[in-house]
Amino acid sequence: MTAAAPDGTPVAVVTGGTRGIGAALSRRLAEGGSRVVAVYRGDTAAAEALAKEVDGIVPRQVDVGDPAACAELVVSVVEEYGRLDHLVNNAGLLLEARSTDTSPEDWERTLAVNLSAAFHLSRAAIPAMREARYGRIVNVSSVTAVMGSPSEAAYGAAKAGLHGLTRSLAREVARAGVTVNTVVPGVFETDMTRSMPEKTQEAIRRMIPLGRRGDPAEMAAAIAFLLGPDGGYCTGSVLTVDGGLGMGG
Length: 249
What we know:
The protein contains 9 helices and 7 strands; from the N terminus they run βαβαβαβαβααβαααβ. It has about 250 residues and is an alpha/beta fold. It has a 7-stranded parallel sheet with strand order 3-2-1-4-5-6-7, with helices on both faces. α3 packs parallel to α4.
């Protein structure tokens, strides 16, 4: 079970919550008794299939790259359910391009989805969490934030920005009973990684000390720890779940 404010069904918002790691987390939280608002951008079929499969998941189509849409999402959730216990900023946009091939528009869009969305959603959620004297925010970064990549300058910069955002927000809201943490996933078994050329997949496997990609359920378990009662003394933390990839070598 996930932790919640003293009474009632816990309510969670999970962005990018209907595919890959986000879907695994939405499923885990809903099966643990939470009401999960699973936010997605475009794949309505996947969102509807997940909601049909798992009771307690409510799909919501939102462009988190739009600051106004972020605020509207949080306001609507609090109005509908009367609370917001958990916010997981998992939505991501990866545009593979070297810096010289990254347009200003691609740079801004990448930062908007991967970094600014976490700020705008957290900013909107914090007042309700302060009032409840309880809240959990988890930001999903990337191993690219700590290792770098020759074709992911915008993505790496945005994900690295989450680390600074996390620690500043954690200091801001700790005395209100709200924790803010970051998780750093490595390479997981998702539609995106499975679509890579086999040669690329094999090269990645050789880089991972454990010799395999992660299962999204393993990432969901790490996030659930930070949302749950056992993670209540963690704030401003960076939890790496990458099979050792971030060690380099």
